[in-house]
């Protein structure tokens, strides 16, 4: 008996279908899993059994609450989409990529660089930069903005969108997991565990190096395979969108620079005013260190004015590209020196989009049209972020999320130091699939696991590392992570294809993470 072809061919579920299925399973679980809460009594966190709250119609209302919780990221994504669509309409990024590739080809005349592979060097340098950002100040949401820039670069170099995502998102999150100074993981967890802030830096730096070596090898091997045979890419068909945009680089329009000169004067005045008002408030936050740096903002502003003047003399495209570059420079300066977060970064990119359109001489209506086209193009990514947040809403409203956590923590039992550390690591890894927020996990788990490590004679520093690794690695596959879903949406990579690609690497990271935890048990390490 032959079945119709529609029954014989398996089609991987759409991302929306996967998320709704997880939502449904979570809602059903609230009918069978007992309720529970962690409460603080006399400075001690205890688990208290309560009645669960079975979820029914709340399955649908959880979607609304998910959008409410992730409103900042959703708005940020829409602004990013609108801003970059406007920048791309001027062909600024295209002009920059063409210029960069011509420069890179010129480097191949040097024998040593040609032997190592200029493209390989570019990939390694970009990955190390973003990994360092993740390790030092916990870069996560900020990667959303960079993915739009790096994917066209990767496509132009002969790779695919996955290589572009790896260069930014994966590198930053491996750095986030193996961080030395990340305030969102190490800072909070060590504070709760009663440890000196960012102690044990030396061994963590070693772990960061080892994890980056594995990551770079993994990405370079895949990139080399795609370079040799583009059809071997899991995204070969879907990347037609990015290849089409890259092929459009040949027809770059020339604009009058009259409007650009006006924007140059306007932004120069704004930058100078901003510098005179805020330069003295700049306090660089690098781990535990706080450095008063009043010279930083004036230096950035001076560089911006000079680079803007020089790029304006070349073409409007290079002037807009210069605006993009210094948007990123001001972003890093604001994050490190002024504690900027999504609202300030969103304002920065909104300004980029408007000023890019003005520089190209667009009318106000044209700027709005380009911006709206970009927001519509990226809306599906923003939609998925809100839907995924509904999963956590269901588990929390059903009052079973603490029960699931307590059940896993209770399994530690009498497993010895190595076994208990491995179980802690496994528990943190599993919890991260449900609660992607590092600070929330630290607040829930560290008050339980830190005292437990004292009972079995295990270093609290090792417990923090188990939390750190467990929190970081699975961020790259957890469907409740708004950042992951946003990045995949922007990159146009289906969740199923991404998991198929990255899952073997995640398993390698988890195994390597456990091996890196063992020295904390058997050796006397600095700060441990």
Structure keywords:
mainly alpha; 25 helices; 528 residues
Major sheet: size, sense and barrel closure? 2 strands, antiparallel
Average pLDDT figure: 81
Instruction: Give helix % range.
Output: over 70%
- Count the E strands: 4
Please give a structural write-up.
The chain is built from 25 helices and 4 strands. With 528 residues, it is mostly helical. The longest helix has 28 residues. The N and C termini lie far apart (66 Å). The model has no long low-confidence stretch (mean pLDDT 81).
How are the elements arranged and paired?
Blueprint: H1 5-8, H2 15-29, E1 35-41, E2 44-50, H3 58-69, H4 71-89, H5 92-107, H6 111-116, H7 118-137, H8 143-156, H9 161-177, H10 183-193, H11 201-228, H12 240-247, H13 258-278, E3 283-286, E4 289-292, H14 296-314, H15 316-338, H16 342-359, H17 364-377, H18 379-397, H19 401-410, H20 416-431, H21 438-455, H22 460-472, H23 482-491, H24 495-517, H25 519-522
Antiparallel strand pairs: 1-2, 3-4
Helix pairs in contact: 2-18, 3-18, 4-16, 4-17, 4-18, 4-23, 5-8, 5-15, 7-9, 7-11, 8-9, 8-12, 8-23, 9-11, 9-22, 9-23, 10-21, 10-22, 11-24, 13-14, 14-15, 15-16, 16-17, 18-23, 20-21, 20-22, 21-22, 22-24
């Amino acid at each position: 008996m032959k079945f119709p072809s529609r029954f014989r061919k398996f089609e991987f579920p759409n991302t929306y279908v996967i998320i709704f299925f997880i939502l449904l399973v979570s809602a059903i679980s609230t009918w069978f899993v007992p309720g529970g809460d962690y409460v603080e009594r006399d400075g001690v966190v205890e688990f208290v059994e309560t009645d669960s709250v079975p979820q029914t119609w709340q399955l649908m209302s959880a979607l609304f609450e998910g959008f409410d919780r992730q409103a900042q990221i959703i708005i940020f994504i829409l602004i990013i989409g609108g801003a970059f669509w406007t920048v791309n309409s001027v062909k600024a990024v295209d002009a920059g990529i063409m210029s960069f590739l011509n420069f890179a080809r010129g480097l191949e005349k040097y024998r040593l660089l040609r032997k190592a592979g200029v493209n390989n060097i570019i990939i390694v340098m970009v990955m190390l930069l973003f990994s360092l950002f993740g390790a030092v100040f916990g870069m996560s949401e900020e990667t959303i903005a960079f993915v739009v820039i790096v994917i066209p670069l990767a496509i132009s170099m002969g790779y695919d969108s996955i290589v572009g995502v790896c260069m930014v998102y994966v590198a930053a999150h491996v750095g986030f997991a193996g961080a030395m100074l990340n305030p969102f993981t190490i800072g909070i967890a060590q504070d709760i565990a009663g440890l000196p802030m960012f102690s044990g830096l030396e061994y963590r730096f070693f772990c960061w190096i080892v994890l980056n070596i594995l990551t770079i090898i993994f990405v370079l091997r895949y990139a080399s395979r795609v370079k040799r045979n583009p059809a071997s890419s899991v995204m070969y068909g879907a990347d037609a969108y990015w290849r089409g945009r890259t092929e459009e680089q040949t027809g770059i329009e020339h604009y009058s620079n009259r409007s650009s000169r006006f924007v140059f004067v306007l932004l120069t005045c704004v930058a100078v005013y901003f510098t005179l008002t805020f330069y003295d408030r700049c306090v660089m936050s690098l781990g535990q260190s706080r450095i008063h740096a009043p010279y930083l903002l004036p230096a950035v502003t001076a560089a911006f004015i000079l680079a803007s003047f020089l790029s304006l003399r070349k073409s409007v495209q290079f002037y807009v590209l210069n605006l993009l570059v210094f948007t990123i420079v001001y972003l890093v300066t604001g994050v490190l020196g002024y504690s900027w977060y999504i609202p300030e970064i969103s304002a920065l990119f909104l300004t980029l989009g408007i000023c890019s359109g003005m520089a190209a001489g667009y009318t106000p209506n044209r700027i709005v049209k380009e911006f709206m086209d970009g927001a519509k193009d990226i809306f599906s990514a923003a939609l998925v972020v809100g839907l995924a947040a509904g999963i956590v809403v269901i588990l929390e409203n059903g009052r079973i999320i603490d029960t699931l956590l307590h059940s896993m923590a209770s399994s530690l039992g009498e497993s010895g130091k190595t076994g208990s550390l491995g179980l802690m690591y496994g528990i943190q890894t599993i919890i991260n699939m449900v609660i992607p927020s590092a600070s929330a996990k630290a607040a829930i788990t560290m008050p339980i696991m830190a005292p437990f490590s004292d009972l079995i004679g295990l270093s609290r520093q090792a417990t923090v590392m188990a939390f750190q690794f467990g929190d970081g690695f699975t961020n790259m596959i957890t469907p409740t992570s708004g950042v992951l879903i946003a990045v995949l949406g922007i990159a146009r990579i289906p969740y199923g294809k991404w998991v198929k690609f990255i899952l073997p690497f995640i398993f390698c990271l988890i195994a390597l993470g456990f091996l890196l935890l063992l020295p904390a048990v058997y050796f006397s390490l600095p700060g441990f």
